[in-house]
Amino acid sequence: MASSSSARKVAKLASRGKGKRVRFSGGTTFPAVITVICLAMLALIIYAKASVPGEETGAPQPSDSWVAAYSFRVCDDQYTLTGTAAELNKDVSTGNAEKATAGTDNADGVIHYHPQKGGATGRKAKLGVFLDTYGVKLSNTKLELPEAQVGTGGVHSWSTKDDIFKGTSCAGKTPVIKVRVWNDYTSGAFYDNVTDFRNLRLIRNGMIFVVAVVPNDYDISRPASSCDLEALGAIGSGDLCKSGAATTTTTATSETGVTTTVAGTTTTVAGTTTTTTTVAGASTTTTTKP
Question: Band of the pLDDT at 278, cuts 50, 70, 90?
Answer without folding.
Answer: very low
